[in-house]
Each structure stands twice: as structure tokens, then as C-alpha cells.
Amino acid sequence: MSDDQTVTSVSAAFNAVKTHGLTLPEAWEDHPWGETVLKVRKKIFVFLNGSREGVLALSVKLPQSAEFALLHPFASKTGYGLGNSGWVTCEFNEGEDIPLGMLMEWMEQSYRAVAPKKLAALVPEP
Length: 126
What we know:
Layout: E1 6-7, H1 10-21, E2 27-30, E3 36-40, E4 43-49, E5 55-61, H2 66-69, E6 75-77, E7 87-93, E8 98-99, H3 100-114, H4 117-120
Antiparallel strand pairs: 1-8, 2-3, 3-4, 4-5, 5-7, 6-7
């Protein structure tokens, strides 16, 4: 997927991000609290909220690019104190441009941040 590819469908973006995340080594889907999360081993590397009609919310840990991410109007520090640890939440409404390439790169960064070192090394830096 190119870095500049965008979609405007919340459901298409949700499915594309989830599908890509599940291709990462030992990644799996879980549903604590009724939400979709992707984990590596027992650690969450992405929160995917598609439960609100017409809204996509994605939270990732961005140790290298949180400051850059927060410059975007769709991004904010994640609540519950996670923002202080570099977690960023991106929120999009149906019909808005959703930058899939960038979100997938951020998801990979989040994966590398929480995965065991041997697994993280299998996902190359962009």
C-alpha cells in the first residue's frame, strides 16, 4: 500500500487496518471491553474502535513519532493516562480522508514498541 493511499469509508479502513495488523508476526485479535484490539503475545499494540456508527478510532503507541502525529487534526493523546506513554488516538468520521498508509506505518511502529525484540526485528522500519 502506498503511503499516500486514502479511503473515505470507515468500514473499509477498519477492515484494511485490522487485516494488515493481523499479518504481523504472532499478532491476534481480541475483544476485551467489547472493543477490537490487536495483540502480540499478551500485549495490545492497537485499539480499533468501530463500535460507534460512522466513526473509526485507532490508538497506537508511537515512541518515535507521537509529536508528529499530534500535529494532525485527527490525532490526540490517548486517554486513561496512556497518552503520557506515547499512545495516540486517531479519529475519523465517515466521508473524511483516512490516510491508510500512514496509519499502517504507525501500527507497525506500535507493534515494534510492544513486541518482544525478536518479533519486532521481523517488522522492518519504513
